[in-house]
Structures are given as structure tokens and as C-alpha cells.
Amino acid sequence: MLARLSPTRRLVIASLLMTAGSGAFATCSAIYFTRVGGLTLTEMGLGLTIACALGLVVGVPLGHLADRRGPQRVAVVLVALNGVAASGYLLVRGFPVFVLMACLFTAAQRGSRAAQQALIARLVGGDEVVRTQARVRSMNNVGIGVGAAGASIALQIGTATAFSAVIIVNALGFFASAAMLATLPPVPPAPDSPPDEPRWAVFRDGPFAVFTALGAVLALHTVLLEIVLPLWITRYTHASTALVTVLFVLNTVSVVLFQVRIGVRVTTMPSAVRAFRWSGVALCAACGVFAASAGGSPLVSSLLLVLAGALHVGGELLVSAASWHITFSLAPAGKQGQYQGFAMTGYATAMMLAPTLLTVLVVQGGPPGWLVLGGAFLLSVLPAGAVVAWAERTRRTQAVPQPADPAGTTHDRADEVAPQNSADAR
Fold first, then answer.
1. In this predicted model, what pLDDT tens digit does every residue of 249-282 receive, in sequence order?
2. pLDDT tens across 367-387, in order?
3. Which residues are CB-neighbours of 393 under 8 A, at least 6 positions away?
4. d(CA 43, CA 108)
5. 287 in helix, strand or coil?
6. pLDDT value, residue 194
7. Which residues contact 113 (CB under 8 A, 6 or more apart)?
8. What DSSP line would sit under 264-304, residue for residue?
9. Which spans in 158-268 are helix H?
10. Which of 60, 140, 216, 282 could form a disulfide with 315 if both were Cys (CB 3.0 to 4.6 A apart)?
């Protein structure tokens, strides 16, 4: 069976194995660390902040390591190291061990994601890059949903043994994912850069840094469902708190059903720029509708929240597809790892700042806060075309990276002897 699986399907399965365990752990982690690990909420928040700060600085170096040593090999090692760190949470009985394990886990996670991005670029290549990313993201949502549903059993039991079982499942998911990645065709390291090129080229790439900053602003939308909306619904609307679950389901199902369909339509740089702009428009509109849901009857508030949730996930689908195409296309050949690591550093920065920033802006600021956030989304997409044009002027125009064969050369998909089956074509 494994021999019949295409590299794309193996990548998708590896992602499913990883995220199913992560979804289960995320559901139980706060309770486990405070009830079993002996942490206060302040200690847990501080420890995660320290780990996130470390994650900001390791993405580019580990991505560069993937370029120099081969993305498949580095991805396997780092995903397995994620499993080691995940199992290390079983040892947490105080703050020092928690910080150590959280830092190890976050560093391995940031590096493995950069390596996997570089692996997709080198292994799949061409128009399949965005399609594969879309499939992986769709399956991620399936895995998270399945894991969260399974974790509900541990929450009902509520014992230390039940929570420890979730941690073990999470660790095993990482180990199984690493084993699946190890079955992929080996991808050779990128060729050495010419002596006159800087080693850390991404730090001197102004337009890529600006685009990463624009993407980081849009990435603030990611925490809306998890943190902002539950508080917003209970404090400012007359809608039932069950709407929180409805919006989660709407978002998850939409990503599973439509991410690939949208991704396959973003095949050129102009289409990616358009999708990026429309994502800002959709997210801005969602913020306006969320603001309008304050007060009013329960029915009106509920309808507005569902409409805003649909606009929100629409913007999320568009910005994902657009960002994949733009960041992969602008990364020079042989430097996908460090460039993807840098792009994810922007995302990680947004995730670190978003909970506090959006709680103050929206939950404490009320409807005007939504309008400010919507304006920020809209303003962040307006210069996208100019930034991409600036980036293209500073480098040789290149297509989305082509796949590498075992000898390290690239080839066009038209040169392949056997076409993919119909399921992969979809």
C-alpha cells in the first residue's frame, strides 16, 4: 500500500498523523499543566511566551539547515524531535521543566515546518506546490477535529492518567509522522550559493520582509475564533454561546471542503496578488458584520455572526492560497528553507501578539475595535501588488519551484512518464 502512495499523499498523511495528536493535546493542555503539572496560569503563560520568543529566532537557521542538508532528512529529524519534546511533557511537575520542554517543542516545531515547506517545494514543485499545501491544510483541519473529539473522552474522565494518555498519543503522532516522511524520496541538499551571494539572503531581502509583515497583519485573524469571539458573543450579543461551536464547525468544514478548490485557482502571481487583496476585503467585511452583531435580538445577532463567520473563513482561504504562491515564488532556488522559516517567523510574531492585542482592541474596545481591526486588514493588502512588483524587480523572474529528482536536478511535470491518478489531479 505504501509503495502505491504518491509523495503528495504521503505528505498529507504525515500531516494528518501530526495534527490529530496536536488537536487532542491542545484541547487538554491547559488543564493538564495546571492540574497535573502544578503550574499556575501565570507560569504557563510566561513559559509559553519564552518558548514563542525562542521560536522567533530559530525558524530561519533551521530552515537554512534544511537547504544545506536536505529538507527531507532535516524534516524527519525535527518532527521526531517534536515527538521527544511532546513526550517530555509527561515529566512536567513545575515551571523549570515546563519551560525546557516548551522551548524544545517550539524550536523543533518551527524548524520542522520550515523544512517541510522546503520539502514540498523541492519534492513536488510547479503548480502542485499550492495544491499540495491546500491538501495539507485541509487534512490538518480534519486531524485537529478528530483529535479534539477524542480528547473530549479524556476531559470527561478528568484523571491524570487520562491526560497522560493524550500526551502519549500526541507524541506517537509525531513519531508516526516522522516515519511517514522518511518514506519519501530523498531530496538532495541545494547547491552551494555563489561566493558573492550572502549566506543569509532573506535578511537582506527588503520586499520579502515587507510582504511578510503584511501577511503578519492578516494573520491576526487566526485567533479570532479561539479567543476573541467567545468573549465577544458572551459580552456584547444576545446570541447563544452555542454559536461559538457553530462558527468553529463552519470554519473547519469550509477549510476541508474549499481550501483545495481555491488553491488550484491561484496559479500565477497576478492571481495570487488578487486573492491576497480580496482576502483583506473579506476580513474587513467580516469585522464590520461582527461589530454589527452587538445588541439586537438573539436571532439577528446569530444571523450576523454566521454571516461574519462565512466572510472570515472566505478571507482565510484566500490569504492562505495567495501567501503560499507568493512566498514560494519569491524564494530563490536553494533557499526555500530559510525563506519559509522567515515567512513563518512573521506568522509566529502575530500569534504571540494577537491574544493580548485583540483582547484589548476588540473585547475591551467594543464595536469600534472591530472597525479598527477591519481597517488594518484592508490597509495591509492594498500595497501587495507594489511589493510583489518590487520583489520581482530585485531578482530574476522565476516560476514556482520545480521538483528535484534524486540526482538533484529539476524537471517539468510534462516530462513525467506516468500521470497522477484522478484523485491527485483533483
1. 899 999 999 999 999 899 899 999 999 999 999 9
2. 999 999 999 999 999 999 999
3. none
4. 22
5. helix
6. 65
7. 59, 340, 344
8. TT--SHHHHHHHHHHHHHHHHHHHHHHHHTSBS-HHHHHHH
9. 160-182, 206-218, 229-236, 242-263
10. 282
